[in-house]
Amino acid sequence: MIGDWDCTQLSSTNAATAVTQKISTGYGVHQLKSFSINYGNCGLFGFYVVMDGSDVASTTFGMKEVIRGVSEEEIERGKNMYKTVAFSALESSVTRVDDIAKQVLYSDTVQSLSDLENAIENVDKKAISEAINKHVYDRDLAVAGIGRTEAWPDYYQLRIGMSAWRL
Fold this sequence. Notes:
Blueprint: E1 4-6, H1 18-24, E2 29-38, E3 43-51, H2 56-68, H3 72-89, H4 93-107, H5 113-121, H6 125-135, H7 155-161
Antiparallel strand pairs: 1-2, 2-3
């Protein structure tokens, strides 16, 4: 749903995802990459952003707002994009063996391709909402900056921004 984007792609309001449409038309972002590293009982999810640094606070809070409002259409598009990327990467025997080794290293199990496809198909808006509520909201952040770090908002502001005021 988020994917990768950089300014050389020349996409704006006609980009494939809503996130790309928003960041390509504002916020001073030059490149966006999302990452997810998962182990058996923990993981790391985040974004790598290259920007001009003039308004870091509005960019970080703007990305949060864009990601919060995900539609069913964007979820379906994201699932299709992920299946394309995942299965294309596993076309050769070398990359498949590499994937199996990583799965064993990270989780002590090996997932079949049909299980992977079923897991992707089982993702829906409710599952995404539950995952965000469980693993993102009200959790501590790890942030790093190079360059104009004086424009970076205080950690306290970022942390409060990730609070989900649930009753």
